[in-house]
Amino acid sequence: MKKTLLFVCLLILGSVTVFAQTMAGPQVVHTERSAIRVPSQEVPAALRIIYSNLGKKTDPYNESAGWLIDGPDSVAGLSSGLPEFVAMAFTPKSDSTVEQVQVAVQYIGSGANQVNFSIYADSGGAPGTLLEGPVTVTNLPPSGCCTLTVVSFTPVAVTAGTRYWVTADTPLTGTGSDFEGVWKWDVKNMGEFGNEGFSYSWFLTPVDGLPAGEVLGTIP
Fold first, then answer.
1. Confidence check: pLDDT of 195 > 90
2. What is the dihedral of CA 165, 168, 173, 176, to 10 degrees?
3. pLDDT tens for residues 108-152?
4. How far apart are CA 46 and CA 163, in angstroms?
5. Rounded to whole angstroms, how far apart are CA atoms 32 and 124?
6. What 3-state DSSP class applies to 26?
7. Ordered domains of the chain (ranges, CATH)
8. Per residue in 154-176, is it b (16+ CB within 10 Å) or e — as a string?
């Protein structure tokens, strides 16, 4: 089960219910504002927005800060002894089918330029059952603004009013385990995070920003 890979992760929630691990906090990445601004991608004509916290096409997220994503063999992972993975919660308003996500996940120049994305059902406020993935995305955009990472999934049916998760993580070994990147913040909302550690315990902790992105698909 892919769930076993989430032994250390950040779970960024879009609500007030969150958790955090006491042995280590998440790492925030600060980057310079990009001089070159490329508008983010358009939503494909065949798809509709199921969930989004993105802003304007030319300013969709906070380009100067985000949550670190680092595999166990990355520079940060080896230094801290704790890889960090990030998950974005979403709750569809209508019964829908998820086919794609566009997220502000970027490569910051260390390790193999690839990361895995999955969709999970919720289990007590954290990713539970794997529904789809992992989908490995390579050649992620460098840190800047405003290109998004696009991930296509085999269609996944989701239920209105139910929380789901989009996760970004790496393999524990092999190619990609040294990835180091960032999931940029959505500055429109404040939230809280969960950081699961080797103790598998969770505690409440506030954060500065939610990971930015949108979930796309079809809505009957």
1. no
2. 150
3. 988 999 999 999 999 988 899 999 999 999 999 998 888 999 999
4. 24
5. 37
6. coil
7. 2-218 (2.60.120)
8. eebebeeeebbbbbbbbbeeeeb
